[in-house]
């Protein structure tokens, strides 16, 4: 395991999508984590890349200043700057990348680039000043579920991660968001579906589950099946959605969770892994968190569920991944360009 210097202070910067975030980590202990979301996208039902870049430009200086202030750290105290280099929206990534480079150059300190997906996985190693939390032992399996990804990752070390299963079409978060959109529930749909599902019957409706070999996922069939159910039922009763939205949400959520957990369980069996972690925006889902806990109780496997603050995009995880990389001697050159797509 990489040995981390407990005195090294690293500033993390995240700007891959629609959250501008900065965090300060001392060793593996989080001193601050500031996130500025972007409400501007709500009116469009999805993230508008150009608007995201402009909002990052407005947010980056106040967010970094606030992260340093909350941590009680001066720029001169920083040992390095870690930033998300990709994957993500190129215009958004450029803002964080350029800011990180400028600050690192100005301060004369090293720059460390971070893969956003690896950072989600490594969020499980973040400690707080109040208490030390249990962390996964390598190797473990991480289920990474977000708006853009649904992956089962075999994590052999902080830098050796292999995607052993992934979605062949939509991500789990997209399934939540798109189904919520056709019900007219607003954006992002995942949290709204989650809230309504708490009052609904998960067995009320049955939707198609994919039959995909191996550990890969597919959510496009479920989306179509959901759409056809609405179409058929609305033809009989125009108020069908209004009358049944809680049951629709509960049934949709249960189907997505069943699909996710089924493949995850197959993968842990096949690889003989007994430690399993959850990560990404969809890991905020209360049903999925409960399913993880049940899975742990049923199998005796150790499960790791992230605190809510690390489920969506945040710079704490970027600082953590950067801290691992810095300790390994990894440095990023000043001419490094961001990338929109990349595997782990
Ligand atoms: O990781 P993330 O913040 O960023 C992207 O991948 O863009 O994930 C965002 C996704 C969205 O699809 C959102 O609907 C989903 O996470 N999400 C949820 C919940 N909270 C966020 N899905 C289901 N239940 C939730 N409570």
From TrEMBL:
Any GO molecular function: iron ion binding
* Enzyme superclass (EC): transferase
Q: Would you name any one GO CC term?
A: cytoplasm
Which family is this sequence assigned to?
Belongs to the KAE1 / TsaD family.
User: What keyword terms does UniProt attach to this protein?
Assistant: Acyltransferase, Cytoplasm, Iron, Metal-binding, Transferase, tRNA processing
EC annotation?
2.3.1.234
Task: Kindly give the InterPro entries that the UniProt entry links to this protein.
Answer: ATPase_NBD, Gcp-like_dom, KAE1/TsaD, Peptidase_M22_CS, TsaD
Q: How is the cofactor bound?
A: Binds 1 Fe(2+) ion per subunit.
Q: Where is the Gcp-like domain?
A: 30-319
Residues binding substrate: 144-148, 177, 190, 285
UniProt-listed Gene3D superfamilies: 3.30.420.40
Where Fe cation is bound, by residue? Answer: 116, 120, 313
The reaction(s) this protein catalyses: L-threonylcarbamoyladenylate + adenosine(37) in tRNA = N(6)-L-threonylcarbamoyladenosine(37) in tRNA + AMP + H(+)
Q: Return the Pfam families for the record.
A: TsaD
Chief place of localization: cytoplasm
Q: Where in the cell is it found?
A: Cytoplasm
Q: Which GO terms describe its biological process?
A: tRNA threonylcarbamoyladenosine modification
Give cofactor(s), names only. Fe(2+)
* Name recorded for this polypeptide: tRNA N6-adenosine threonylcarbamoyltransferase
């Amino acid at each position: 395991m990489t040995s981390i210097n407990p005195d090294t202070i690293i500033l993390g910067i995240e700007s891959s999508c629609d959250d501008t975030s900065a965090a300060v980590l001392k060793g593996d202990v989080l001193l601050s984590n500031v996130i500025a979301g972007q409400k501007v996208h709500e009116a469009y039902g999805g993230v508008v890349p150009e608007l995201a870049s402009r909002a990052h430009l407005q947010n980056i200086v106040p967010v970094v200043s606030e992260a340093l202030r909350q941590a009680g750290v001066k720029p001169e105290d920083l040992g390095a700057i870690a930033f998300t280099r990709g994957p993500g929206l190129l215009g958004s990534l450029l803002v964080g990348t350029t800011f990180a480079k400028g600050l690192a150059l100005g301060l004369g300190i090293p720059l460390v680039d971070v893969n956003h997906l690896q950072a989600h996985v490594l969020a499980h190693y973040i400690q707080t000043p109040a208490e030390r939390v249990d962390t996964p032992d390598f190797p473990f399996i991480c289920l990474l579920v977000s708006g853009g990804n649904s992956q089962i990752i075999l994590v052999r070390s902080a830098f050796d991660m292999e995607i052993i299963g992934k979605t062949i079409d939509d991500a789990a978060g997209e399934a939540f968001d798109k189904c919520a959109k056709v019900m007219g529930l607003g954006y992002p749909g995942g949290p709204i579906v989650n809230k309504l599902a708490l009052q609904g019957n998960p067995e009320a409706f049955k939707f198609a589950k994919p039959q995909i070999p191996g550990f890969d996922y597919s959510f496009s069939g479920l989306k179509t099946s959901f759409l056809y159910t609405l179409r058929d039922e609305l033809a009989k009763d125009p108020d069908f959605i209004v009358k049944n939205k809680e049951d629709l949400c509960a049934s949709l959520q249960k189907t997505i969770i069943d699909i996710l957990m089924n493949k995850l369980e197959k993968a842990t069996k096949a690889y003989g892994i007994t430690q399993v972690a959850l990560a990404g925006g969809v890991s905020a889902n209360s049903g999925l968190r409960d399913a993880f806990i049940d899975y742990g109780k049923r199998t005796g496997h150790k499960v790791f569920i992230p605190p809510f603050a690390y489920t969506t995009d945040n710079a704490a995880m970027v600082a953590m991944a950067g801290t691992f990389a810095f300790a390994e001697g990894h440095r990023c050159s000043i001419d490094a360009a961001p990338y929109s797509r990349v595997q782990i």
